[in-house]
Amino acid sequence: MSKTKPSYYQNNGKDLFARFEDGLMTPEENRGFYKGNVFKYMTRYMGKGGLGDLDKGMVYLNRLEQYEQKLDLEQYEQKSDEQKGIPQSNSVKRAYLVYLEDFNDVEFIEIYPSYEDAESAIDGMVKPKTGTYYIGQVILSKQVIDYVRSNAKN
C-alpha cells in the first residue's frame, strides 16, 4: 500500500472509498467527504505536510472525479435507449470498454456487454502497480466489436 492509501483502510477487500460509495453514505455526503479532504490537504500543504499533502489532496480529487463519472453513468443507464439517442437497430450495440490508464498511456483491456460485467472483470483483475482501470461506454456496430475483440487477443 502507498502512503496516501495505507492498508488499514481496507476492510474485507474493500477500501474506505468503496464502502462509502456502496451506500454507507449518501451521494451528497460522499461529495462533501471528498471535497472537504481536497480542501483540507490543499490548504495545509505549505505549513504542514508539504508534497505529501498535495499527493493526498490529489487522491481525493481523483476519487471525486471517478465518483461523479460513476453517478453520471448510473443516471444515464436509467434512461431508455430512445432517450439516449441510440439507434434502434440490431446491428448497433452498447458496449463497455475496460482500459488501464497510467499517466498519459491508455491500454485497452476488453469489451463487455454490460457495466456490471465490466465491473466484475475489474474486480477479478490483478491491481496494476501504477495506473487505474476505467470503464467507458461506447455505441458500436457488431462488426466493430467483433473486430476489436479479435485484434485485442492477437
TrEMBL record:
Mind telling me which InterPro entries this protein's record contains?
A: SaV-like
* One Pfam family matching this protein: DUF3310
What's this protein's name? DUF3310 domain-containing protein
